[in-house]
From TrEMBL:
Gene3D superfamilies assigned to the protein according to its UniProt record, in alphabetical order: HIT-like (3.30.428.10)
Taxonomic lineage from the root: Bacteria, Bacillati, Actinomycetota, Actinomycetes, Micrococcales
Protein name (database record): HIT family protein
Chain spans, region Disordered: 1-21
Domain HIT: 50-159
Annotated CDD domains: FHIT (cd01275)
Gene source species: Brachybacterium rhamnosum
Length: 186
């Protein structure tokens, strides 16, 4: 019986930018985020948590758009797209199943209102909504639950970040926060 040949491993460095059946997309600009820039040293320490510290700061400085009773809306400091909002409970809680009924209701209501406000101000064609539960699921700050509200426009996913190592955000975060906060219903 003959031995099976050793499997060969291709060097993937030559594949960047070469289309094939898997259509790889290289996003080196995300490495600072993936590497943990600005993440707390101890994710379970609420004092280090950016979602716990933000409500203790001025809304403009913290990029908070709206404060509710048990949750609030804040702009994402590392947005996937212009106008990327996060809906967070004030309480330091990691898992959706640990939310109180009041927190579940307000996170849902604030998400709906955020979509309405963003539609009014920015006219997106659609949205991505979601929660990444756990670090393995993509949660950048896994210890504090947050709902993503990401406005989307036709053609907004271009190759500028890959080719030019640049993400084009046509408006400053502070200006976006001000417009959304002003449009938020009383």
């Amino acid at each position: 019986m003959s031995e099976a040949p050793e499997p060969s491993v291709e060097d993937a460095r030559g594949f960047a930018g070469v289309p094939d059946s898997t259509q790889r997309l290289w996003t080196p600009h995300r490495m600072a985020y993936i590497g943990g820039q600005d993440k707390p040293d101890d994710p379970d320490d609420a004092e280090q948590c950016p979602f716990c510290s933000a409500p203790g700061r001025d809304d403009e400085d913290a990029l908070i758009v709206h404060r509710g009773e048990v949750a609030y809306v804040i702009l994402n400091l590392y947005p996937y797209n212009t106008g990327h909002l996060l809906v967070c409970p004030f309480r330091h809680v990691a898992d959706y199943t640990e939310l109180t009924e009041a927190e579940v209701a307000e996170v849902a209501a604030l998400t709906r209102t955020a979509m309405r406000v963003v539609r009014e101000v920015s006219s997106p064609a659609g949205f991505n909504l979601g929660m990444n539960q756990g670090e393995v699921a993509g949660a950048g700050i896994a210890a504090h639950l947050h709902q993503h509200v990401v406005p989307r426009w036709m053609g907004d996913a271009n190759f500028l970040p890959v080719v030019g190592r640049t993400k084009a955000l046509p408006i400053l975060l502070a200006d976006t926060r001000a417009m959304y906060a002003e449009a938020w219903p009383a």
